[in-house]
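The protein record passed on for reference:
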Amino acid sequence: MAGAADPPTGPQDEVPASIPLALLARWRRLTTGSVNRRILGGTLVVGTMGLLIRVISLFKESFVAATFGTGSEYDAFIVALLLPSTIVGILSGSLNSALIPTYIEIREKENQEAAQRLYTTILLWNTILLGALTLGLAWTVRLWLPYLAWGFDPAKLELTRNLTLWTLPMVLLTGFATTWGAILNAGERFALVAIAPALQPVAIILGLSLFCRSWGIHALLFGTMAGVLLETILLGVALARNGHPLMPRWHGVTSAFRKVRAQYGASIAGAFLVSGVSLVDQAFASTLGPRSNSALSYGSKVVGLVLTLGGTALGTAILPQLSRMVANQEWTAIRRFLKVYTGLILAVAVPGTILLILMSTFLVKTLFQNGHFTADDTALVVRVQVFYALRLPFSACGILVTRTLTAMRANHFLMAFAVGSFTINAALDYLLIQTFGIAGITLSTSICSCIIVLAMSLAMYRLLDRRALEAPAP
């Protein structure tokens, strides 16, 4: 009877188990090997994670819209979060741009231990800077906040100040998260770094669900800060499991440290001027009366989703590859690379922009119109979103250009163009709100993006030509 007890085995029993393994093997073949395949893999991972995060974020925004609409409390929260979130954005882009190319160069040309020493030194230096910045902003909040909230009455301004003080610790937390994420990205560990920000909208949804009735706008604050803390913890745990130290440590001022410091300083200055565009935009919006700050915020959500899916995902994936090509002085290969990826970006971004404009009313109604978010709010946000969508092709190409300049350690170019962007945007804001109201601010952003990206592209190709001429003959 022993034979009866043994179930028959055969190839058909192995099929269910073999399907996942076959798919995994196909994925590895598709995304490993050549530079283009690794970029494809990184882009797909970051883009997919970005899509998931943005879907969760849009659900969160729908929840927030139904809870607060475009009311004064949400206006106050938007302005309170503006400077800390701007600094967070500056840190993320600048530190990745400054640290990753040099970290990879040291790792490739020296060894992993030397790269680790660079990382822990930068972590300590960054922590001291951000700690001092956080304390300074808290100490002087009464001086600078009124300039961001020009049109707020005294009660609304006081609420904004209290909310701002509670959001400032995210600057220091993000300093750790950004440095840890940069090291994971340098090792092409894109997935976890890309998915970690999903904790923020999840925490906000939970915070509003549990505490909104009793805490009001402070429930939104609680969810925001809890999400930042959880993201920082997750990245720290992931980095430790990959064998990297978490604590900062000083190893002296080396040539590699000087490189990162110089690039970081130039990137921060340039990125602050670029991100200062958002500060100026919200400052102008606060002069246009209630609902304006909220409408400007809601109107950027869907466009932000599209940029995350395409441009930002591609930018994250290509920086390590561009850094390697620059380190090896493969200037002709870089030009071919730029031509191919610019064509791909435009082939997707232009039709996507047209489709987004045509579907704007449907999207805003579906995502936001509920509860305290009325039909009048929908009409206002649609106008803002349509003009903002015009920037998509230029911003997506701009990510490719800025990553190339970053890999070439030419961040001084970015600073110069950031000054121009800041100036042009502020002037256009003032002129266009006279005719288009709050929607004029997003039209200004789109026009400015077009001008600056074209100018940066010209400078980038001239720099490539110069580097090619200076390169030693093979």
Q: What stands out?
A: The mean pLDDT is 82.
